[in-house]
């Protein structure tokens, strides 16, 4: 009988029939030895199933013992030169510490983190030296989502590799002058280095899951060979409390993402204190992931514990390990060996006997599994070879490993960025850094000669794996041909016989045209979140299919219909269900495919605009950081276009959010031809020119006639504003009406009222992007500020409006701040009024909603008359007459407060 069997038998102290138990366990062990673990698993499942069928209540548990998943005899030992690797890791630890501490001795407010990399160093070293392939002709490269707070360690490695200079390390977190290093992984700021942003926390795990699925999508559609590529994502145990971190783990298992490895650095601490002081985070996460269908590998104990566990004939050590909570484990590593002897092994007399021959220093050297290269290598190897399921590694480490009393395993470890001379000396001694005492005060970086054997080894390992990581491709090598604007003629022309369609229908025509294009068709990625029918896009189901790795294992209930729900192994649509964050993560994977996969993809993510920017705002910022290229289509946009829904369904502010993201190009077009011009411009910039921008385009489901493209207005559409129609030239009174989206039509109707009822001419301006107009104005302002002796630049809005006359009224379906963006750029002295939909949304008809929010044609008319009266060209009594004529309720509460 094996030692493990002895332990299992002994652990059941309350077993009424140990002989019978022993016989069952012996039988199971014989099956494992002779027929393999798969057969044993099958028999156990059959036994449990039978017991439940007979009425036995057998509660389910996803947890295993608090020990390493891989038994000692099955560990694959690391084949590298561990002596060299240990020295390299030590030098990286030192340089990472020096980088942060030096920065904060110059400026104590710069911040930085030492402890996260200190706990991760072994794992990152094993990965970089033995597993992670760089992109080259033979391999597309592995994708790394690196724990954000460990960035100093990644820089320290790149410094030894010769990829970063000492001057760059000295400018850690000093980026403004163009030679520093970003605080966290930011592709926007370091476009040749970082692959993915992983801060804000929680976004890394979520984006990595959908990135892995997108690799499967590319392979299934024969666009790229991604079969041997892996996505590795590193995150902290505290980070797993973010809903985004765990929100998609079910999808990863369902989609069988065996190209995904998530490594959770379980150092038991977050910023303020323990992650689970009263519990065990590793056990909790094991249950979550195993229950979701993941392959779970736990790396809890280092090799020093193996001998103790082998002695644990009665299972006492394992029981104490399980009963000890994380708050205690944190305390043990913040103290010393004597403390561990007394408070851990002292929990049972037999444990004290077990370590009686060990000194306190020996006990202190009993490491956690995350600090042993062999344990890590074995776990990584098993994860790399796993098939059929995603893998999560739960690796126990010490926060601030090697920082000593300054931070090791202490609640302050995460924020520690300043070390005194004693702490620096202690770290120098612990990791044998060859720096003499008389230089310690300067905390010099350490880099041996290029011909040092360790340095040669470092470069050999990366050469064997294809090159350096992380690295990022800035441009795709391929060239796709964008069709001419005329390809969208069915949208550019006016609708015949007064036929009414929506801009959403226009968009569907545009994407249908693109799907048929010989160059771009296969690269279009429609992404939907269970709203295809809302946007009239269900026709795409049958046309191009919905991606599913299993195909369609059922006959759809609507198979007899033209637009039935069709899933396909090579489907083109990514249907994410009711999951905006997932849809956005898929969009990010596609929108950055030019970099990650050397394949230009053109994603169109179409969603309820209300559930876009505000719900996934952090991911949109991450997309900007990643230099994403693609289209975000905000459907049923505006606060009054989506009639009948309600307070949380009506979007009056998404364009305010979009305006804050510098490389987002936001547009609120009114007509189909404007949508076509904007989409074509996006294709030109993102596909032909490979510019790092993305587009947010809002769409409406309100039907009305489309006037068609007037030749020559394309430039004005893209700049954000152009003259749509002029009022009668002979009128003596004149106003300027600006509008966007469906509310532009209210301005057009107001122009008729002003002319017919009050003899006032109104020029109507379509403003597909007030944000683009405002950005141009701000750019001119800034140039004029720093070039005071040069001829001033004139903002585009000023140029357009200065030849006109009369007050200006800008009306949109968004909050007034949207229009207020351009106030500073209207000609000096001109009266400017902004009307908008401030306040909560609510359910009603479009007519009633526009009356409630005071953006309908009557309020636009009265606002124009009031501006004329304020300018002194008509009497205020005329305004009062108009208020009465149009039945405006003077006692009505301000919608802003309702």
Essential attributes:
4 domains; five-stranded parallel β-sheet; about 900 residues; Rossmann fold; six-stranded parallel β-sheet; 36 helices; single chain; about 40% helix; alpha/beta
Explain this structure.
- It is a single chain.
- Helix content is 41%, strand content 10%.
- The chain is built from 36 helices and 20 strands.
- 48% of the residues are buried.
- Helix 26 (617-625) links the parallel strand 11 and strand 12.
- The protein has 898 residues and is an alpha/beta fold.
Q: Report Rg.
A: 33 Å
CATH superfamily of the largest domain: Thiamin diphosphate (ThDP)-binding fold, Pyr/PP domains
- Which spans of ≥5 residues are poorly predicted at pLDDT below 50? none
From the N-terminal CA to the C-terminal CA, the straight-line distance is 77 Å
Characterize the main sheet.
6 strands, parallel
CATH topology of the largest domain: Rossmann fold
What is the structural class?
alpha/beta
| Mean of all residue-level pLDDT scores | 93
Helix and strand arrangement:
Elements: H1 3-11, H2 18-35, H3 37-53, H4 82-106, H5 115-130, E1 143-145, H6 151-161, H7 166-170, H8 203-220, E2 231-236, H9 243-246, H10 249-254, E3 260-266, H11 281-292, E4 295-299, H12 304-311, H13 316-323, H14 326-334, H15 337-343, H16 349-354, H17 360-364, H18 373-385, E5 391-396, H19 421-430, H20 453-464, H21 489-492, E6 500-501, H22 503-515, E7 524-528, H23 539-544, E8 546-547, E9 567-568, E10 574-575, H24 580-591, H25 593-596, E11 602-608, H26 617-625, E12 631-635, H27 654-659, E13 664-667, H28 672-688, E14 694-698, E15 704-705, H29 714-719, E16 722-725, E17 733-739, H30 743-758, E18 760-766, H31 770-786, H32 796-801, E19 808-811, H33 816-820, E20 832-835, H34 846-852, H35 857-870, H36 876-885
Parallel strand pairs: 1-2, 2-3, 3-5, 4-5, 7-10, 7-11, 8-9, 11-12, 12-14, 13-14, 17-18, 17-19, 19-20
Antiparallel strand pairs: 6-15, 16-18
Helix pairs in contact: 2-3, 4-5, 4-6, 4-20, 5-18, 8-24, 22-28, 30-35, 35-36
Organism: Massilia psychrophila
InterPro entries: PDC_E1_N, PDH/Transketolase, PDH_E1, PDH_E1_M, THDP-binding, Transketo_C/PFOR_II, Transketolase-like_C_2, Transketolase_N
Binding site for Mg(2+): 237, 267, 269
């Amino acid at each position: 009988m094996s030692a493990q069997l002895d332990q299992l038998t002994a652990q059941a102290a309350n077993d009424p029939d140990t002989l019978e138990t022993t016989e069952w366990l012996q039988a199971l062990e014989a099956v494992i030895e002779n027929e393999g673990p798969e057969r044993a698993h099958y028999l156990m499942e059959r036994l449990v199933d039978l017991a439940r069928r007979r009425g036995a209540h057998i509660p389910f548990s996803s947890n295993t013992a608090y020990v390493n998943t891989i038994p000692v005899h099955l560990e694959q030992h690391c084949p590298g030169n561990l002596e060299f690797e240990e020295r390299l890791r030590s030098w990286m630890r030192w340089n990472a510490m020096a980088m942060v501490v030096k920065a904060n001795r110059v400026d104590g407010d710069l911040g930085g983190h030492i402890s996260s990399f200190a706990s991760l160093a072994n794992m990152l070293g094993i990965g970089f030296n033995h597993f992670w392939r760089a992109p080259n002709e033979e391999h597309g490269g592995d994708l790394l989502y690196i724990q954000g707070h460990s960035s100093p360690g990644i820089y320290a490695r790149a410094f030894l590799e010769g990829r970063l200079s000492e001057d760059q390390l000295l400018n850690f977190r000093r980026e403004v002058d163009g030679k520093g290093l970003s605080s966290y992984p930011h592709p926007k700021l370091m476009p040749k280095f970082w692959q993915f942003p992983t801060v804000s926390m929680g976004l890394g795990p979520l984006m990595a899951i959908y990135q892995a699925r997108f690799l499967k999508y590319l392979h299934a559609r024969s666009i790229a060979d991604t079969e041997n590529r892996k996505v590795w994502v590193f995150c902290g145990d505290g980070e797993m409390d973010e809903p985004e971190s765990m929100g998609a783990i079910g999808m990863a298992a369902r989609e069988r993402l065996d190209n995904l490895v998530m490594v959770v650095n379980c150092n038991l601490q977050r910023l303020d204190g323990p992650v689970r002081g009263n519990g065990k985070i590793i056990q909790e996460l094991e249950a979550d992931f195993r229950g979701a269908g993941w392959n779970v590998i736990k790396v809890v104990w280092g090799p020093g514990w193996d001998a103790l566990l082998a002695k644990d004939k009665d299972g006492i050590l394992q029981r104490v390990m399980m009963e000890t909570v994380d708050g205690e484990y944190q305390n043990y590593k913040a103290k010393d060996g004597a403390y561990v002897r007394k408070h851990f092994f002292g929990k049972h007399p037999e444990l004290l006997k077990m370590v009686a021959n060990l000194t306190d220093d020996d006990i202190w050297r009993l490491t956690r599994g995350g600090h042993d290269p062999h344990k890590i290598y074995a776990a990584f190897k098993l994860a790399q070879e796993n098939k059929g399921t995603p893998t999560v590694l739960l690796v126990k480490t010490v926060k601030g490993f090697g920082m000593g009393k300054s931070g090791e395993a202490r609640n302050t470890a995460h924020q520690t960025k300043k070390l005194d001379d004693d702490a620096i000396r202690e770290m120098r001694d612990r990791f044998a850094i060859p720096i003499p005492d008389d230089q310690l005060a300067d905390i010099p970086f350490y880099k041996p000669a290029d011909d040092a054997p360790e340095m040669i080894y470092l470069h050999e390992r990366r050469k064997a794996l294809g090159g350096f990581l992380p690295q990022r491709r800035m441009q795709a090598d391929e060239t796709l041909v964008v069709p001419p604007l005329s390809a969208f003629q069915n949208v550019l022309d006016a609708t015949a016989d007064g036929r009414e369609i929506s801009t959403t229908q226009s968009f569907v025509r545009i994407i249908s045209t693109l799907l048929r294009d010989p160059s771009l068709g296969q690269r279009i990625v429609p992404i939907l979140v269970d709203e295809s029918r809302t946007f009239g896009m269900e026709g795409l189901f049958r046309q191009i299919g919905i991606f599913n790795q299993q195909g369609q294992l059922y006959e759809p209930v609507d198979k007899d219909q033209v637009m039935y729900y069709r899933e396909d192994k090579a489907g083109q649509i990514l249907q994410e269900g009711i999951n905006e964050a997932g849809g956005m993560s898929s969009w990010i994977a596609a929108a950055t495919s030019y970099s990650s996969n050397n394949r230009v993809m053109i994603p169109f993510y179409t969603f309820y605009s209300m559930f876009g920017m505000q719900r996934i705002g952090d991911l949109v910022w991450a997309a900007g950081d990643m230099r994403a290229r693609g289209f975000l289509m905000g459907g049923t946009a505006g606060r009054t276009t989506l009639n009948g829904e309600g307070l949380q369904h009506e979007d009056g502010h998404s364009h305010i959010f979009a305006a804050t993201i510098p490389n987002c190009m936001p547009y609120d077009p009114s007509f189909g031809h404007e949508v076509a011009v904007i989409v074509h411009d996006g294709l030109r910039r993102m596909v032909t020119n490979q510019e790092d921008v993305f587009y947010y385009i809002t769409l409406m489901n309100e039907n009305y006639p489309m006037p068609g493209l007037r030749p020559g207005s394309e430039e004005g559409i893209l700049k954000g504003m152009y003259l749509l129609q002029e009022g009668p030239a002979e009128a003596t009174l004149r106003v300027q009406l600006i509008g966007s989206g469906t509310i532009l039509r209210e301005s057009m109707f107001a122009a008729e009222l002003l002319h017919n009822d009050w003899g006032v001419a109104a020029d109507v301006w379509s403003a597909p992007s007030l944000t683009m107009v405002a950005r141009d104005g701000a750019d001119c302002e800034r140039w004029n500020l720093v070039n005071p002796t040069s001829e001033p630049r004139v903002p585009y809005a000023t140029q357009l409006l200065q030849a006109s006359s009369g007050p200006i009224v800008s009306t949109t379906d968004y909050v007034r701040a949207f229009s207020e963006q351009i106030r500073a750029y209207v000609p000096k002295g001109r009266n400017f009024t902004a009307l908008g939909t401030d306040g909560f949304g609510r359910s009603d008809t479009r007519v009633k909603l526009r009356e409630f929010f005071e953006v309908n044609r009557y309020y636009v008319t009265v606002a124009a008359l009031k501006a004329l009266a304020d300018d002194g060209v008509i009497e205020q009594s005329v305004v009062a007459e108009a208020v009465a004529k149009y039945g405006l309720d003077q006692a009505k509460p301000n919608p802003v407060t309702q």
